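B., you asked whether I could sanity-check this one before it goes into the benchmark set. Here's the sequence:
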Amino acid sequence: QVRLVEFGGGLVQAGGSLRLSCAASGGTFSSYAVAWFRQAPGKDREFVAASTWGGDETYYKASVKGRFTISRDNAKNTAYLQMNSLKPEDTAVYSCAAGVLFCSGYGCYDRYPEYDYWGQGTQVTVSS
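And here's what the prediction gave me:
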């Protein structure tokens, strides 16, 4: 059983930056794809970014591409989401997810049912 814990959320002004971390334990993190999803109040959960198990391929929601960067350090069992140029519409609870995906490409990695393990989420609030 893989346990995921997110760190790094908080309150930041528009235009600022935050770096989220997702620490994994209890499994072989290097075997799993990892993704970040977010959910704002009253809205559905939405995909933000994903990385293949080796980090060689990454995928992004169109509205965060160029501002957010997903990365991972398999030696530290940790994934990261660097968020720059934050906007008020980025305000949400951000959750990391991990799983062994048996499909490929953006139409696969952005689907939350593909992921088996989830963290509890961390709040990101961007003030205008």
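One thing to flag: The CA atoms of residues 64 and 119 lie 21 Å apart. Otherwise nothing jumped out at me.
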